[in-house]
Design brief:
Layout: H1 3-28, H2 44-48, H3 64-73, H4 76-93
């Protein structure tokens, strides 16, 4: 098994853990009971310490600010699954040694 495959499995496992954590926290609800479901995504910005919109003001090209904001607010489990897919894809097309 190559390093890219191991990294892809690690990203996939982390994505499953984050998705499971979000599912369990949704079922518990903010009051600790399963009466009110409120699915809140963990985003990349949450994992990195919050979204600082002032730092995005430096990007002056059209649409770049919105794209960066969208990418930073995307759910973390989607990022992890995408990284896993990318690792598996790179392994599939990498030259065999």
């Amino acid at each position: 098994m190559s390093g890219l495959t191991k990294l892809g499995i690690l990203f996939f496992g982390a994505g499953v853990l984050v998705l499971g954590y979000q599912g369990i926290s949704t079922l518990m609800g903010p009051t600790g009971a399963a009466e009110d479901f409120a699915w809140e995504n963990l985003s990349l910005a949450d994992a990195l310490g919050g979204l600082n919109l002032e730092s995005l003001d430096n990007f002056s090209l059209l649409g770049i600010q919105e794209i960066m904001k969208y990418l930073l607010e995307a759910p973390l489990f989607i990022w992890l699954f995408a990284m896993s897919f990318l690792c598996f894809l790179m392994h599939a097309f990498a030259p065999k040694s």
